[in-house]
Amino acid sequence: MSDLNPMPDPKRTVSELKELRALTGTEDGAQRVAFTPVWQTAREWLIRKMAALPVETRLDAAGNLWFTLPGESDRALLIGGHIDSVPNGGWLDGCLNLMAGVEIMRRISAEYHGRPPVTVRLVDWADEEGARFGKSLFGSSAFSGNLDMEEARGLIDRDGIPLPTALENCGISFERVMDAGVERKNAAAYLELHIEQGPVLLDLGLPLATVLGTCGVERWAITFNGQAAHSGSTPMNRRKDAFLAAAKMAPEIHRITDRHGGVCTIGSCKTEPGIVTSVVAECRLTLDQRHLDATTLAAMLAEAKAASERFAGEGGCTVRWERIWQIAPVLFDNDLIAFCEEAVAETTGTSHRMPSGPLHDAAEVALAGIPTVMMFVQSLHGISHNKIEDTLEAHIGQSVLAMDRLARKTMEWIAGR
Fold first, then answer.
1. pLDDT tens column, 204-251
2. Whole-angstrom Cα distance, residue 41 to residue 47?
3. Among 303, 315, 160, 291, residue whose Cα is nearest residue 236
4. What distance lies between CA 71 and its chain's CA centroid?
5. Is the pTM of this model over 0.85?
6. pLDDT for the residue 5
7. Which of 30, 327, 335, 370 could form a disulfide with 85 if both were Cys (CB 3.0 to 4.6 A apart)?
């Protein structure tokens, strides 16, 4: 080991993030949509940034891009992120993770003269966002073994291009994507840094937080059925107004979160026949509920269903529920959570624990049985997936230093097991 004890250079990370923004963005924001030429340009840029390090570079079967710094032990610390963005996205979502990882890899390589005690791998997951085909976490779910191949096979973008064709255009064989699971071999821990994407840390005045896990999600379509009737001739007390029954759900989901925490969202509302001269015969809502605790999430869902039955009965209507999507909460590793909290406190003098409402590649890695933790850095405005997405450069710097501390602690933990 070198006695110089090199440190990462957060200013270089900020500079490189700005360089990437200039290369792959427009005045409307980031344009690094996965499986497009701009995305490939971004990856080529990343490969050039890593060229000075003694790393092995390879593309796995699902299109995930790996940089491996071999160590004395084959047991590997994984650091991950994603360079893809949503259209007109922000300059930090996904790529901050990677560029902090690049800087950490530089420090590790310098400190150990290119041969650390454990193997260290940086991964750029393919298509975390799902912006083009509507399927998030593509590369990491192939890695974990959880990718639904039949669902993925049928995905088509707005131009009618199937996902398998888009993959083929990038040199990726769709039929082999599940072979990405071989990359799980020797993986001992996974770390991921991400902007918070919400306002919690901003409101608390804190720069960084330790993420406990990703929330479980219950997503349903709720359809209230009443009876169409003339809006002029039907007395109010004779109506079976599906919209009235459905509308009562809006304040109710807020009461549910008041009791349990978590979040609930009614994201859409569609009425039939949808004309001004008719009482609503059918009203379809979509409900999204999220919580880190599975038992609490189940209670939230049960209370929402009971409320919908009550509101339907009060209005002479019926209601039916159809599940759109569901995922269980994913809890991160307790040891790594403790290391992350120590790293944040040592860097900033503060600490905070919180769940992640959005899903991340880290959840798929954790589902593969690999000890995992995430770190959040404050988002200005509490806004992401938008060109105004931003984080103070001072906080970016702290996030790089804290992640480096976390990497040190985790490497020692891996080496000692």
1. 999 999 999 999 999 999 999 999 999 999 999 999 999 999 999 999
2. 10
3. 315
4. 29
5. yes
6. 79
7. 30
Instruction: Cis check for the bond before 6: say yes or no (omega within 30 of 0).
Output: no
Kindly report, residue by residue over 9-43, the tens digit of the pLDDT: 999 999 999 999 999 999 999 999 999 999 999 99
Expressed as residue numbers, the domain containing 117 is 10-214+329-415
CA distance 382 to 387: 12
- Looking at the domain assignment, is residue 26 inside a domain? yes
**Last residue of one domain, picked from the residues 297, 327, 357:** 327
Angle between helices 95-111 and 393-415 (to 10 degrees): 50
Q: What is the DSSP string of 211-263?
A: EEEE-EEEEEEEEEE----BTTTS-GGG---HHHHHHTHHHHHHHHHHHH-SE
215 and 300 Cβ atoms separated by less than 8 Å: no
- 10 Å Cβ neighbour count for 1? 10
- Domain assignment present for residue 355? The answer is yes
Which residues partner with 326 through β-bridges? 218
Let me know: does 121 contact 60? Beta carbons within 8 Å: no
| DSSP, res 21 | H
Q: 221 pairs with which residues across the strands?
A: 286, 322
Determine the residue type at 338: A
Phi–psi pair at 60, nearest 5 degrees: -85, 180
Could you give the C-alpha distances from 398 to 69, 176, 393, 412, in angstroms and in order?
24, 40, 9, 21
Beta bridge partners of 189: 77
Judging by beta carbons within 10 Å of its beta carbon (0-12, 13-18, 19+), is residue 5 exposed, middle or buried? exposed
What pairing do the DSSP bridges indicate for beta strands 353-356 and 208-214? parallel
Rounded to a whole number, what is the distance in angstroms from the first to the last CA of the chain? 20
Does 2 reside within a domain? no
What pLDDT is recorded for position 2?
44
Spatial neighbors of 149 by CB under 8 A, at least 6 apart, are 177, 178
Q: Quickly list DSSP for 81-134.
A: E-----TTB-SSTTHHHHHHHHHHHHHHHHHTTT--SEEEEEEE-S-SS-TTTS
Same domain, 347 and 250: no
pLDDT < 70: residue spans in the chain: 1-4
Structure tokens at 60: 């796995």
**In the numeric block, which tokens belong to residue 324?**
């759109």
Residue with tokens 């004309």: 275
Q: Are residues 379 and 242 in the same domain?
A: no
What CATH number has the domain bearing residue 351? 3.40.630.10
